[in-house]
Amino acid sequence: MPKVYNWQLGRDMAYPYEGAYPERQFAFVFNINRCIACQSCTMACKSTWTFNKGQEQMWWANVETKPYGGYPQWWDVKILKLLEEANPEGMSWDEGAAEDGVKRPYGRYAGRTIFEAPPASLAPESSRVLGYLPSDEEWNSPNIYEDNPVGSKGQEGKLHPTGERLPVHRTWFFYLARICNHCSYPGCLAACPRKAIYKRPEDGVVLIDQEQCRGYRKCVEACPYKKAMYRGNTRVSEKCVACYPRLEGRDPESGGQRLETRCMAACIGQIRMQGLVEVTADGTWTEDRYNPLYYLVHVARVALPLYPQLGTQPNGYYIPPRWVPRPYLRQMFGPGVERAIERYTFPDRELLAVLQLFRRDNRIIYRYAIEKGPEIYRTTYRGRPLTLYNDTVIAYGENGEELFRTTVEEPLYERPAPLQNSI
Hints:
Blueprint: E1 3-6, E2 11-14, E3 24-31, H1 40-49, E4 62-66, H2 75-85, E5 93-94, E6 108-109, E7 174-178, H3 187-191, E8 197-199, E9 206-208, H4 218-222, E10 228-231, E11 236-239, H5 244-247, H6 262-265, E12 272-278, H7 292-299, E13 304-305, E14 316-319, H8 326-333, H9 337-345, H10 349-354, E15 367-371, E16 375-381, E17 384-389, E18 392-396, E19 402-407
Parallel strand pairs: 3-14
Antiparallel strand pairs: 1-2, 3-12, 4-7, 5-6, 8-9, 10-11, 13-14, 15-18, 16-17, 18-19
């Protein structure tokens, strides 16, 4: 099996195909700390792409409540159990191998991935990706266990009697918003016996050629995130297409400019940022210091990949929730969790300014700049000094044009007394 370099694992990895990388890669960051599970993203996608017969149980975008929720139910618990069984010697990270660059930011993963776990002698190639096929019942309830918190261990239905406070809650849950990660090494692509799945060379979006697909459901089985879905009435698989007409600037409302996806644009919690990052010959990100995605992932390091140990090198990243026990988050996002939460809890001036870019505009941001402003607030938080400045952050488009500017301190509008509902 060929070897490819997986920078999230910090090492070479077995994969059924030789490495081939797009000019620029579609990527996104979700800030879990802000998600309120309003499902606006879910319904925006549903009403745009999956509203026809046979798509009733297709939710390309969804928000699930962790730790108990999931769509399909228990998708992550099941794939993690299979991966654990395939690693009897254990799975570990050598964090001492971490570096400041893009080659090994989280250290080196020592376990097997979903591509390395199955015996190499298995045939056909579609059997060489560790996975499972969910039952029909597991696709029935997209909001199962919504808002269900974890309580006292071994005491079902009973919460902790005391109140909760940071840094870690004992009674907790959080919302995990998900779409297809458009992985650099997709499990669905590796498993398809028809070679009907491909990555677009211009933006790395993973698509299914519906004329080539015969509905074998190997993609559904092999995708560890279960974002490839089978449509029974047409007998082909479908998945998130990253709203590629919007990416191309062909959406009627775009005026020729590249736009964020429907789920991103509909987010009222302002948790999402999407963009395009340049990629090098080995699949790592080209240094682009003032691209907001590059900054969040590789400079501030507050945004982490979802289950990097699976080996797909997902291009979806998450700012982890501050209140959740760290072992749970470490399993979900890898060894960078403690650093990410620390940086997010005590942000410097640049990080605080970049966080204001989330959902201020539907157009894709390629670069940002910061104009320093006055000090507006000073305090001590958890024993450490914290100072806020009203800096202005400016977003630029693909051709260097200014898209918008916004400040750290949000404006306050007072309703004039003569207007209705005035107090």
